[in-house]
Amino acid sequence: MGLLIIRHGQSEADLLGVHEGRADFPLTELGEQQAKRLSDYVSTNFSPDIILASPLKRAKRTAVILKEAIGCELIVESDLMEFNNGVLAGLSREEAAVKYPLPPNGRPAHIPIENGESDLEFRFRAERIFHKVIFDYRDYQRVAIVSHGGLISHLLKAFLRQPNASDFAFATGDTGIHLLEIKENVSVIRFLNRQEHLN
């Protein structure tokens, strides 16, 4: 089974300098172009049998563009949404720092942000959707997942069976692609954060 994990294209929040998370911003014009280049590249080199996507506009639109290029089924999975950042969603970083400053030693992993989720809840959600994908879609040769940077980082931690307290993180650029393979006796990372389609 192959997992093609893809981040959405540039969103309007990237230009506004705000906390995005669950704030539902659409793709920019550049983001649309990135998604089209991604789709051409994926359809030529790593065409999936099915696409799973976050319902947030930036990811779903990226997935729709990919679906149109490939012609396979697209299923929306709410667990693929980005971190639920509660009261921070859509706030400028300056305003957020004043209204909702971090505790002196940071927010403990088990304590959620106001109206949001905790780091541990976020990690558990990623584990849940990862295991759902490899179980429910195990008969597909390759599954594409279109999601968000934070959730993708946790999916990679789940794949690598890292502990909840892991300090490692995995960066993903706009329409960055990760290709993983799960076989009977081994799990293989083919590549991480590939963006050559944007060149």
Automatic annotation (TrEMBL):
The active site is at residues 8, 82. Gene3D superfamilies: Phosphoglycerate mutase-like. It comes from the Bacteria. GO terms for molecular function: phosphatase activity. Pfam families: His_Phos_1. Transmembrane segments: none annotated. GO terms for cellular component: cytoplasm. This is Histidine phosphatase family protein.
